[in-house]
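Assemble and predict.
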Amino acid sequence: MAEIKVENLQKSFGDFVAVKNSNFVVADGEFVVLLGPSGCGKTTTLRMIAGLELPSAGRILLEGKDVTFKRAGERDIAFVFQMFALYPHMNVRANIGFSLKCEGVARAEIRRRVEETARILRIDHMLDMSVSGLSSGDRQRVALGRAIVREPKCFLMDEPLGALDAEFRHLMCGELRGLHNRLKATTVYVTHDQLEAMSMADKIAVMNKGVIEQFAAPEEIYQRPVSMFVADFIGSPPMNFLHFESGLARGSTEVRFGEAVVAMPAVHEELAPSKLVLGVRPEHIRFDDTSKLRGAVYGSEYLGTTQIVTVDTPFGQVKARTSSELSLRPGSHVGLQLNSERLSLFRGDGGRAVKSALYEGEAHG
Amino acid sequence: MSGASTTAHSVVEPSGTSKRIAGFLVILYAVVSMIPLAWIFATGWKTPPDSISYPPKVVFEPSLEGYCNLFTTRTRQTAAYIEELGPPQGECDEVTRRREMVIAGSSNYVPRFINSLVIAFGSTFLAVSLGVFSAYAFSRFKIPLADDLLFFILSTRMMPPIAVAIPIYLMYRELGLSDSALGMILLYTAVNVSLAVWLLKGFIDEIPREYEEAAMIDGYTRLHAFFKVVLPQAATGIAATAIFCMIFAWNEYAFAVLLTSGQAQTAPPFIPTIIGEGGMDWPAVGAGTTLFLIPIVVFTVLLRKHLLRGITFGAVRK
């Protein structure tokens, strides 16, 4: 197993820059997820690590060795494709053993390793079946088997669960993470599904328009998003944004929304008067009639134990997650209380997070 | 289905009546198309007088004369000479002697037939192999001016090939390719390769790149991946393309007449030149044509499943 290091990686297709100056390190045994909307460059990044695409600039190091321009087959990596790419003209056994055959492994040894892999994935009873008759879940396992059997330096997975239905995807998420815990294999995993990313990753790289916006652990990304894009992309419903204009002194611990004063973590920057955005997660909003930050209830979605209440405020629409026992009529006016320790502040232009006690408290640690 | 059809009918499935009408039309068309073939087949079993009798004979006594004449050359002899030869050796000897002739040797039909086989299979093999490699390249690599090149390849089929017959005749004479199997193989390959490239490109486009990419990550080179993963997937397309190339090369007449006359002559120009006593030997022509149809029928039947899938392939996404 190995460390993957990506240095100043860049890829353009004609005028279009798919990946811009990317830098990150996947430590040995780490499970890293590249997360972002379609077209953000996550798959291109993965394909460059795999050697299926050559970068326009930058370097890729595998176990400290420069592999930027090495052929895919010489990198000793395994790749799991979204549509599995099982060879339809071979049975399950031949599919899993295909890479070993290339390495010239002896027949008996191939047999042993294929069977062992199949046991790990619980597909040993279907080794002699044709792949075309398999369910998508079983195909997925065969595709994983093909990757595992080689004992490669690292696993690269391109939306491997994208072709599965929602229920099964959830199950496979658990299985994949369990597999990773057992094999301790360095893994880079591409997805656009934040739930997959949050539930499996050691670290997430959130990508947008070819740029990695934030590379950190899931909790870090959820609690301290470094940009409005990340804050908006992660979380369901996403972070709420309240728009206002103000200047702030270094060390301020409150912001004003008209008459309402909202306490927030101490600001560590000097801000000239400009457009600002306060970010608050739905679960950090409470209804409190004494609060001066008020809005009208627009509607609610019942989710069982909780409900999502949408409230129109003069500063933008917000969604609050509250107990489902609370009953609020659409149109009624409510006061909103925000959890002052968990608020993020973003610049109106560019959407970068403003440094504050919330961010720097951890960043030094 | 059947139970429900009394109360409601599907808007997609054709109704019973229209199915029957369609079936009738197809059968009618098939029968009409079969008439010439059936006539040729029947002529092969007639005697020469029966074959040119008027009104034409539909019911007749079958005779082996056509097939005998096809494979042999004969000379006329006096009755006295034939008398001396003793009893006839086999069926053919007997029919020949009835016309006061004896078998002098074997005809050129078999060597011409073998020429046809060599040239048709050779050019099909070449056209399909060249086609599959270039189709792969067009499908997978970024080739400058790829669209123009593809159009150029197709444009070689935009005029009837026979339009360039005279330049080719002169060229072949200079190059010493006239009346050689190699020359005919190259010519038919040149005509077929554009068809092969276009057909096969369609098939290879349909094969997801991920298959090769997976194989290449597994350590195979691109060439290996091509042979182990792409070719087996393209089998249907290759079969369909091969049938089209084969049918063209097998049936081609005009170039064969022009460019072959001796040792490389194929069967199509040979068959109509079988001349009997006092004009064309129609039963022998019928017999020769019937036998000539067999290889292409066998070839097509063997690959029929692929052909049908091949023609409709890509029309609907799976």
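The longest strand of chain A covers residues 16-26.
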